[in-house]
Structure to design on (247 residues):
């Protein structure tokens, strides 16, 4: 995907998140994030947006902590979220293509600017789903290309890190297939962090997850149940993912 596509997605989903939060109310529970209210969702995502914008704006080379979210609620909190989201979109749109700054996933896009545009687009899309869950409405659709990209970031980026808790006592193979885009990933599970190879390696899979990219995106990010006819083979591996893959 192009950087401009990520920025457009970020702009759209952030605005939708704020609108949904306004409709649900900041006291509404977020069922996809147990223990959270919409207030927590806005504070978290708003802080992440400001954190990311800081790296881009200041070309920061060292990791810094998330900025603290203010103790706001209701309309004031939604306004604070909108302000930070708009600033992030603007910062990404105005950033130089040769930006050099800190990034944090082991399989990053070709440039820091592409990394942050991608990461914040998916951060915001997933949390927009949380706002929809709080309001009790269906998830807005994402394109197959965007969904495939988000699955790839999750499998080859987030779960390649030592902190991933998706582990098995003995080596197991989980295969993920996007039926509409034809993308495939082979995930090697073991006592070590998962090792994901793009494509079908030809080895037998203990469990296969097959479905449209948008379903895989929501289910692997734990925003839909990882169950149903798309799960074949050893379902305990799908259950393991649901229990341990939270970011």
């Amino acid at each position: 995907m192009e950087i401009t596509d990520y920025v457009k997605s970020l702009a759209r989903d952030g605005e939708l998140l704020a609108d949904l939060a306004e409709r649900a109310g900041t006291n509404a529970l977020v069922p996809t994030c147990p223990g959270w209210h919409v207030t927590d969702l806005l504070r978290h995502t708003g802080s992440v947006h400001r954190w990311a914008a800081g790296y881009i704006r200041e070309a920061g080379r060292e990791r810094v902590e998330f900025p603290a979210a203010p103790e706001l609620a209701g309309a004031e909190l939604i306004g604070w979220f909108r302000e930070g989201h708009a600033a992030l979109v603007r910062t990404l749109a105005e950033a130089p293509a040769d930006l050099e700054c800190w990034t944090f996933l082991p399989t990053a896009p070709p440039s820091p600017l592409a990394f942050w545009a991608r990461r914040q687009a998916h951060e915001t899309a997933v949390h927009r789903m949380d706002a929809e869950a709080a309001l009790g409405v269906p998830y807005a659709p994402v394109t197959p290309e965007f969904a495939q990209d988000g699955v790839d970031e999750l499998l080859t980026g987030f779960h390649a890190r030592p902190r991933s808790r998706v582990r098995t006592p003995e080596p197991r193979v989980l295969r993920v297939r996007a039926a509409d885009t034809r993308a495939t990933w082979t995930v090697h599970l073991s006592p070590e962090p998962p090792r994901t190879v793009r494509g079908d390696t030809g080895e037998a899979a203990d469990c296969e997850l097959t479905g449209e990219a948008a379903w895989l995106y929501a289910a692997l990010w734990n925003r839909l149940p990882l169950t149903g006819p798309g799960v074949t083979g050893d379902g305990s591996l799908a259950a393991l993912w649901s229990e341990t893959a939270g970011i």
